[in-house]
User: Fold this.
Amino acid sequence: MGAREAGLPEVVPDDAGSGLPESVVIWEVGARDGLQNESSVVPVEVKLELLDRLADAGLTILEATSFVHPKWVPQLADADELLARLPRRPGVVYPVLVPNERGLDRALAAGVEHVAIFASATETFARRNLNRSLDEQFVMFDPVVTRARTEGLAVRGYLSMCFGDQWEGAVPRPQVIAAATRLLEMGCSQISLGDTIGVATPGQVTLLLRDLWAAGVSPDQVAVHFHDTYGQALANTLTALRAGVRVVDSSAGGIGGCPFAGSATGNLATEDLVWMLDGLGVRHGVDLDRLARTSAWMAERLGRPSSSSVVRALTG
Ligand code: HMG
Ligand code: MG
Assistant:
């Protein structure tokens, strides 16, 4: 008998009294972050079915794809076709990544309502991921944000390498805070703090969020985006929730990674997050069994088992 059939997890609300929320918004990035890093290109039909199943499982924010240069990320070269064929569900938003005005043109033509720009906190990753210097990336993003807002779109700003960079090592917190506040001043309504290579530990999360709040950033403006390379993503997420964050990025089945950051592996698995939130009595709106079955189905399509412990436990 699996843990699920045995009635686990028992709901035991956290009594540390340190501000866990009643509910959390899950920002599902599987179709974008998950599939951008696959060695093979996943057929558009499979992507459409994945998005459909994720919506069936109750997820309401489904990051769908990226309008980036198709030669840079061939795995998402079908972004225009995907959006053209994607049936929109009421109550579900489908954000897409756009790096520049060309990407925004394509996103607008596809009828999207929510875009995300993606900046780097470090010089090296800005060059590797965007072919721009740290300063030049903001010059590229500025007109994108202005025009997107004029068109009535919501704009999220990702910030990568917030907790460590494989080329530069430790990233000074003031450098991260300067880039984060720049994204907000530019007009992003939310920033998502990325641990792109999955090296962060909870103490770092506490300190970065403390310094961000001290710099005048509100917890309502911040989401967290942890990759799970060193198995710390869930602990980091719990730390961020206790510090006031209410929006968490995760990917179904724990797929994901950035092709331009060699040691990036999968995101925090949505199932692992949901299992923890269930146990803590924090609402999220997701049907865990349905989601786990979707990730098991996707794992078959990708030809390898899910990296999520919860998916394996529930579907094995
Ligand atoms: P570039 O080569 O410097 O581009 O790439 P350019 O501005 O010099 O333009 C060159 C040509 O590309 C032009 O065509 C443009 O029109 C075309 P030409 O005039 O020569 O015929 N072009 C485009 N075509 C289609 N769509 C576009 C586009 N842009 C230019 N959007 C660029 C600069 C930013 C485009 C490139 O570096 C790029 O596409 N980078 C994307 C990298 C990426 O997608 N990385 C993964 C996402 S980030 C991530 O995963 C981290 C995150 O998960 C958070 C975390 O984990 O930390 C978000
Ligand atoms: Mg990522």
